[in-house]
From TrEMBL, chains A, B:
Domain of life: Bacteria
Family: Belongs to the NtaA/SnaA/DszA monooxygenase family.
The enzyme's E.C. designation: 1.-.-.-
GO molecular function, one term: oxidoreductase activity
Name used for this protein in its record: LLM class flavin-dependent oxidoreductase
SUPFAM superfamilies tied to this protein: Bacterial luciferase-like
Keywords assigned: Flavoprotein, FMN, Monooxygenase, Oxidoreductase
Enzyme class of the recorded protein, top EC level: oxidoreductase
Length: 441, 441
């Protein structure tokens, strides 16, 4: 087995990642709110020795929930129940630095890490959907740069909270009567531009010290944030070249900050349609696309590109010149990615719709198990990925195909573990447990 | 079996409720952060057909953690993992209306209710400990009246969020392609003195519609809040007379607001030391008191009464005239309760220390299983309680004694169920599932 091996997460989404997944006959729409469904899914991923399950999140309701399973399972509660049903697999929760209080967030992660015995990861986002603002008393979603400014301060604060109990602070010596060595518990006394937090946290340091820091924004601000703070990065790329550029850029930025680039894993999304022949895989993909609804996609294009189109424009070209490329929207990496598709492929509106239906801009591959494994190996060996965020088109069937047919090939090629050799998410990712940062004096 | 029967919760506290519980030889201090310990405890309570397990909470670290197990397990993560290990028992999480965002809190409870299939309860508190303020960017803990003012608005907002999806809004019809009937999902458009929240929630209405509303403040403001909003009230009383007065007052307030007083359960705390003889029970209690540490109690008196005493004053009388009875402190019901003990019993400082060590002001009883059952029956039949929040001095042993020895007596007397006849916390408490309040037009 080669020294460097793949990291694989299962990105969980109610129903699956294709926007019409919930309509597919292999999906049971009655189980989308059933925790047993997600526990079972995590057990399957654990049986395949996946590094982690990952839950996305946002504190608002998507405007196109009429046509797709776009409600939001709350990640902390959901993953805590998943933790109780599993032993080894990592648990990555998305949480916003824009719409949470750092003290509350630090507690949720420390507790998740304690109860899972060291399996928590934090996908740090600034929240993409602007409609969240209205749920938190704001007139406007803070602009991109401002969100990242708060994010930087936020990460500093929660890091200090997680480190506010030294590892040796919990004594619990029945004889002497010392429960905690309060000389080893420290206020953090933070006072900054966005936040003021005294601390200390009200919980001993957790098994991993801190959850694994994951980041999922690929804009300029997002990259520089990731280079400084992230230990794993989720990203979306359509082409090997795009993936390589991003990978090289991010590793270089981390190195320039004095970090070991090997401790910053780049994990693009991949949504695989698997068939016993390539034709069968493509037919399966087409079957999903036929279940899509134009109203859903038109709303997506409105939100993503600011394009206000109607159903009778579906078979015309995408009106490129109506897309607003400046300002807030232009900062987003997902926006840039869609713009690249339009410029490269010149699709019709319907073509673009189908292009995005699979995984909202993430790479969709359709092929035999060998072909899918080849794609994965190529990106992994050609400097575009340290592993993948696997986004099955539908669940659980789409994951089972991957686990049963692609994973054995990856193993045979020495690219993926056959069993866990660690018990924490840091262990699976090859990351050290961080020492507590020194206390303020 | 008589129509009216007891409701029993297990109030879970790391180690147990006696402040020295963690030092007792029957307690394993290495398991206080082990989720398996709490899952096992909940399974024991479920085997005894208890209504619920209850977790207290506060977003700050207690100043006397040096001497006692006063860290805070985060209730949502912890109870979600407990939910995964149980089937029927209710799960009551304490959460603050002062230090959380209503949108985030509404999601956590809706998710807990979904994943537990209708077992969530919310202990609504305004947060007692003033040091929380520093963890949330505030100079001062908002004053009592202001906290309750926000609490009233907060409950209105989260109620509307929980009702923002009508029960029929989730359609998930694969054929027609309608996932959610957006005509049945409503913005709440709240704009008030403390909060602005647009909604809707990003999750379908939960099995119970809303979590059970529990309240735990007994001050004037607390009572009027409870009369208006609560479905169960946790309270602390030392004497039957005190319990009866509170019970009658609260039921009358609810009736005056046009509510059915039967749908407002009053559940005082009780901390039982159980022995095969009364002398044995008293000896057990004394054994715990011997493990207490003066430094801990002196800090408690400082915080609770504003008294700054030293160890050499332990055997003198409580300096009653130094206690500040006006202002903020004087509003708190726990303060009043301690003042009553001092006035009634004229204890020494050490005596008061031991009086409070058992359960922080809750009633401590020591006796045979029959005597403990008698006490419970007396309060239940004499108009002081609809049930109890059972606070074992140590865990799990102190609970096992209660479940194995007292519960069978209560059953033999027809006072407590032998098995669950419902599947939700509302069901156990005899409360109806609320219809969604009508949407704003
Ligand atoms: C795999 C992946 C998952 C993501 N999940 C979320 C999410 O759950 N919530 C969210 O607000 N943003 C999420 N994002 C990030 C947003 O899509 C968006 O990129 C970000 O909010 C803005 O950052 P950027 O402009 O730096 O890319 C995710 C991104 C990727 C690549
Ligand atoms: C059984 C019980 C449990 C309580 N748990 C909490 C708690 O977990 N967190 C909290 O801030 N207050 C809790 N309280 C309430 C506080 O003790 C205090 O009464 C409240 O914050 C102020 O309300 P009051 O002045 O109306 O009594 C609890 C009260 C009781 C009776």
């Amino acid at each position: 087995m080669s020294a460097r091996t793949l990291h694989l997460n299962l990105f969980v989404y109610p129903g699956g990642h294709h926007e019409a997944a919930w309509r597919y006959h292999g999906t049971d729409p009655d189980r989308l709110l059933d925790i047993g469904f997600y526990q079972d899914l995590a057990r399957r991923a654990e049986a395949a020795a996946f590094d982690a399950v990952f839950f996305a999140d946002g504190p608002s309701l998507a405007d196109n929930v009429r046509y797709a399973s776009r409600f939001r399972l709350e990640p902390f509660t959901w993953l805590s129940a998943v933790a109780a049903a599993t032993e080894r697999i990592g648990l990555i929760a998305t949480a916003s630095t824009t719409y949470t209080e750092p003290y509350n967030l630090a507690r949720l992660f420390a507790s998740l890490d304690h109860l899972s015995r060291g399996r928590a990861g934090w996908n740090i986002v600034t929240t993409g959907a602007p409609q969240a603002a209205g749920n938190f008393g704001l007139d406007e979603h803070p602009v991109h740069a401002e969100r990242y400014d708060r994010a930087r301060e936020f990460v500093e604060v929660v890091t200090r909270l997680w480190d506010s109990w030294e590892d040796e602070a919990l004594v619990a010596d029945q004889k002497s009567g010392v429960f905690a060595d309060t000389d080893r518990i420290h206020e953090i006394g933070h006072s900054g531009r966005h936040l003021r937090v005294r601390g200390p946290l009200n919980l001993p340091r957790s098994p991993q010290g801190r959850p694994v820091y994951v980041q999922a924004g690929s804009s300029e601000d997002g990259r520089s944030f990731a280079a400084a703070h992230a230990e794993a990065v989720f990203t979306a790329h359509q082409t090997l070249r795009g993936g390589q550029d991003f990978y090289a850029d991010l590793k270089a930025r981390a190195a320039a900050l004095g970090r070991d680039p090997g401790r910053l894993l780049v994990l693009p999304g991949i949504s695989p349609f698997i068939g016993s022949t390539e034709a069968e895989a493509r037919a399966l993909h087409a079957e999903f696309d036929e279940l899509t609804q134009p109203e859903y996609s038109l709303q997506l294009l409105r939100r993503l590109l600011g394009l206000d189109l109607t159903a009778d424009q579906l078979d015309g070209p995408v009106p490129r010149r109506l897309i607003e490329t400046e300002g807030e929207r232009g900062n987003g990496s997902r926006f840039r990615l869609v713009l690249d598709i339009i410029d490269r492929e010149q699709p019709t509106v319907r073509g673009l719709m189908h292009r995005l239906a699979g995984a909202r801009g993430h790479r969709v591959v359709a092929g035999t198990p060998e072909q899918v494994a080849d794609q994965i190996q190529e990106w992994f060996e050609q400097g575009a990925a340290d592993g993948f965020n696997v986004m099955p088109p539908w669940l659980p069937g789409g994951f089972d195909l991957f686990a049963d047919q692609v994973v054995p090939i990856l193993r045979a090629r020495g690219l993926f573990r056959t069993a866990y050799d660690a018990t924490t998410l840091r262990g699976h990712y090859g990351l050290p447990r961080p020492a507590a940062s020194p206390a303020l004096r």
